[in-house]
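Subject: Eyes absent homolog structure
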Amino acid sequence: DYSYAGFGQGQYAQYYNNSPYPSPYISNNNSPTTPSTATTYQLQDIPTVTSQAVTDSATGEFGTIHSSSTSIKDAESDRLRRASDGKSRGRGRRNNPSPPPDTDLERVFIWDLDETIIVFHSLLTGSYANRYGRDPPTSVSLGLRMEEMIFNLADTHLFFNDLEECDQVHIDDVSSDDNGQDLSTYNFATDGFHAAATSANLCLATGVRGGVDWMRKLAFRYRRVKEIYNTYKNNVGGLLGPTKRESWLQLRAEIEALTDSWLTLALKVLTLIHSRSNCINILVTTTQLIPALAKLLLYGLGIVFPIENVYSATKIGKESCFERIIQRFGRKVVYVVVGDGAEEEQASKKHTMPFWRISSHSDLMALHHALELEYL
C-alpha cells in the first residue's frame, strides 16, 4: 500500500499550469496550495508481480488489470464493438476505414509511450537502474532482449522490412489508395513491392510518391498490419507461437520486477480511462508507426489503444500530431496530455492543453488517484 500525506486537491495544480479549463480543484492562481489539515489517502490494491500474472494461458497477457466490476467489462465490450475491425473490404469504406469519434466523448487523454507507459530507453542506457539502485548490466540486457523482440515481431509479422522507409503517421493515411481487394490469397512476397521501393527510393523523405499500382501495394500492407493488430491484440502469444511466447512472458516478468511494476501501474490508469464511455486513450510516440505497434502488442497495450488511436510523430513532430487529433475530435472535448518529455509538454502548451508529467511511479499513482476521485 502507498500512502500520501497532505494529498489535498490543490496538489494537482502543478500538472495543470496554463490550463484554459475551469476546474473546482485548481486554485485561481494555478499554483499548488497547502491544505489546512493533513489528510492521508490509501491507494488500495496496487498489483504486484506474481507467477499467476505471467502465465495466463488463455490470452498470453501479462499485467492486464482484471476487475470484478461488470460495468467496466460491459463498457469495454461496447467500446470494442464500436472499434474498427480493420477489414476494409469494399470501396465504400476505404476513404474512412476507422470509426468516427463517439458523440458522447468528453475527454481525450494523449499519452507518450517510452518512459511514460513503458520503461524502455532508460533500460537500454542503464539510467533507470542507476536511478533506482538496480543492476545496470541486467537492465541493459533486458532492454536489448526486448528491443530484439520488438524488431523481430515488426519484421516477421508487420512488414517492417518493406515499410521502414515508407513510414506513416497513422494506419489509415494510405487507405485511400486501397481498392478493397480480397487479400486472403494475396502473396506479399512476390508482388514486387520491395524491389520497386528500393530501386526508385520511392519512400524517402522527398515526398515522392510511387505510381498507382505501387501505392495500392503499400496500402495493402498497412491494411494487413491493421488486421493482424486487431486479431492478435488480445492474444499476442498466438502470434508469437509457443516457444517465443514463453520467452516473451518471462522477459515481461523480469522487466516488471526490475522496474517495480511500472507497466502494471500505467495499465491500471489506462484501463480506468478505457472503461469510461466518455473518455478515450490516444498514443502519440516518436517511435516509427510499425515498431510502435509491435511495442504495444508486446507490452499488452493493444486493448487500451485501438490501432486507429495510435499516431507516430517521427516525421511530423508531436505538435502536428496534436493538431491532427484536434481536427479529428473537435474543440469541445477536454484534452489532457500525459508524458515525461519536453516535446509533448511544449506541444501541450502550444495547444493550451493540461499536461500531467510522469517522472516516477508516484506520478502514475497520483494520476490514478485523481481519476478515481473523478478530478479527471
